[in-house]
Amino acid sequence: MSLYSEVDLPHKPTEHPDWQESWVLVFRDPISGAVGFLRTGAYVNQGTTQTHWGMALPDGTRFRRHLLDRKLQPGDRTETTASSGTAKYSIPDMKYCRFEAWDKDADVDLRVYDWFPSQDWSFVGGPNHGKELSGPVKETVGTSGHPESAGRLEGRIRFGDRVINIENGIAYRDHGYGARPHAVFRSARWHAGTVGPDMSYSLVSMHDQGGELHKFGWVMLLGKRQIIRDFHTVSSTLCDGYSVIGGWSVVKLENGETLRINVDTVDGVVTSTHFNNGGPGSSPAGIEALSIPRWNGRAGVCDFNMIDNPRQGEAAVSHTLFANCEDGLTRRSFDPGWIR
């Protein structure tokens, strides 16, 4: 029996002008130390597609390329595939998830073999505590669904002339669909990742435009989904007020158990909805902090995502120390090793 179902495939859009659907892969190869973030999606009713793509190596080699306003082409969305021109998602024969991407400076062709079926967020706190997302709150978080999972990774990546074959990597993936209008909200943390088959998780905390706090998430522990009583995520940022170099999350489960997940960031990738580094008419620029989470002696991969925008501004991001806002192949000049 396949772990995959129609929830993992492209959905029929509503008539909302900001309805979007996207698939994200966060990955790490323990042998080379390579990490990456790949997102392919489309604002279907606007007729545009999007690729967000960033990768890095521990020596500071990094790649980033976003393509955010490509015209949606016939064949980009089928029953089992979605393409944004430079990136593609598919589930061949409903056996694994495949992520592909192409650029003159980089390539990826990766396969994720999930450990468990996709999980959607549940409320943490409030009157709907413990229940999966439903009702008006979906408009608050800009989604009708957010199925996520994790698994073993294999395939091939390329940085310039360097090709890396991955035989036993680790990956986390997500899939968001629904209305996602432009909103200049105040702050958000999305700590989502895995340390292997024993423990995977997704933790979301955000302040909306009006200042209300929302928390969602799930934990898959030893093959069983656990209800979260409460959690907090703490991000360590540099003096640019933006570059994340690590942190931690502490999760209280309903059964009384407490999990602490410590995080060391390998590199950061700046993302925004409509412009490379944010700006008027785009979402507040966030950092996909591609990181190594550690729990109970195990190490994995996570996105330690952070958006801080307490004054609700719309200026573009620039002059960052550890968050990549440049295009193409570059070399990071900042070394955080001595301050960790």
UniProtKB/TrEMBL annotation:
<dbReference type="InterPro" id="IPR055492">
    <property type="entry name" value="DUF7064"/>
</dbReference>
<dbReference type="InterPro" id="IPR055493">
    <property type="entry name" value="DUF7065"/>
</dbReference>
<feature type="domain" description="DUF7064">
    <location>
        <begin position="185"/>
        <end position="310"/>
    </location>
</feature>
<dbReference type="Pfam" id="PF23213">
    <property type="entry name" value="DUF7065"/>
</dbReference>
<protein>
    <submittedName>
        <fullName>Uncharacterized protein</fullName>
    </submittedName>
</protein>
<feature type="domain" description="DUF7065">
    <location>
        <begin position="6"/>
        <end position="180"/>
    </location>
</feature>
<dbReference type="Pfam" id="PF23212">
    <property type="entry name" value="DUF7064"/>
</dbReference>
